Amino acid sequence: AQSVTQPDIHITVSEGASLELRCNYSYGATPYLFWYVQSPGQGLQLLLKYFSGDTLVQGIKGFEAEFKRSQSSFNLRKPSVHWSDAAEYFCAVGHSGGYQKVTFGTGTKLQVIP
Amino acid sequence: DTEVTQTPKHLVMGMTNKKSLKCEQHMGHRAMYWYKQKAKKPPELMFVYSYEKLSINESVPSRFSPECPNSSLLNLHLHALQPEDSALYLCASSPFQGDYGYTFGSGTRLTVV
User: Fold this and answer.
1) According to the 3-state scheme, what is the secondary structure of A9-65?
2) Deepest of A18, A22, A77, A92, by most Cβ within 10 A of its Cβ?
3) Do residues A43 and B106 lie in contact, with contact meaning Cβ atoms separated by under 8 Å?
4) Closest residue of B to A90, CA-based?
5) Is B107 close to A41, i.e. CB distance below 8 A?
6) pLDDT of chain A along its 114 residues, tens only?
7) Long-range contacts, stretch A10-13, CB < 8 angstroms, 24+ apart
8) Which DSSP category does B28 fall into?
9) Is any Cβ of chain A less than 8 angstroms from the Cβ of B100?
10) Strand-pair partners of A57
């Protein structure tokens, strides 16, 4: 079954520093992969998505992610973090075939310190 | 209009009450979803509607009853809930069921007392 794993529960970075959030997927074929962000008490917002093609995907708010099939990874990056980026980040995989739904990873909480 | 609107934002209900959550979108999306999210956990899928028909029910207890009266509206009727049902209930939509770029509402924070 398709699944994603986010190994980091909590990450703290300084404002202005670079960021990388890890996501590993388990899927036989090329997966549909996503990153969502959730601010406290809010809904989720789609940052970016990967279906096929170029393995480096650009998203909103200056985020990007790179699909690496050899490492079964889809890590999220940002070159310079802003205090407003503090939130929960979810990696997700879309199931193909007849059972079309999205499964979310357990999330990584990002704390940004001055 | 690129939003999914959920009402109410907060709801407190007793275990014998009947209440409903409402979700509305005007983006022309034909797939709509209900998710349940407990604190510090990822969202868990409850129901999927595709073209106003129930497509997926993730073995949700019958005290939760979804309804999709038209392509813009999605309701979740609640009856005889338990305290453990307290959670953030999120609605989402997408152009069609296989398009996973969801637009989420801000959710209804439900507390069952």
Assistant:
1) CEEEEECCCCEEECCEEECCCCCEEEEEEECCCCCEEEEEEECCCCCEEECHHHCEE
2) A92
3) yes
4) B42
5) yes
6) 778 999 999 999 999 999 999 999 987 677 899 999 999 888 999 999 998 888 999 999 999 999 999 999 999 999 999 999 999 999 999 887 666 788 899 999 999 999
7) A10/A108, A10/A109, A10/A111, A11/A108, A11/A109, A11/A110, A11/A111, A12/A110, A12/A111, A12/A112, A12/A113, A13/A81, A13/A110, A13/A111, A13/A112, A13/A113
8) -
9) yes
10) A65
Residue A100: closest CA among B110, B103, B49, B4 = B49
Tell me the residue type at B23. Answer: C
d(CA B75, CA B85): 17
Q: How far away is chain A from the Cα of B80, in angstroms, using its nearest Cα?
A: 25
Yes or no: say if B107 and B37 are a contact pair by the CB < 8 Å rule: yes
CB atoms within 10 A of CB B64: 19
Beta partners for B108? B89
What does residue B80 show for φ and ψ, rounded to 5 degrees? 55, 45
Q: Taking Cα atoms as reference points, which of A102, A109, A111 lies closest to residue A4?
A: A102
Q: Which residue has the tokens 């699944």?
A: A3
Q: Tokens 């704390």: give the residue.
A: A111
Query: Would you list which residues of chain A are within 8 Å, Cβ to Cβ, of chain B?
Result: 32, 34, 36, 41-46, 49, 90, 92, 94, 96, 99-107
Contact assessment for residue A81 and residue A15, using Cβ atoms and an 8 Å cutoff: yes
Distance from C-alpha of B37 to C-alpha of B100, rounded to nearest angstrom: 18
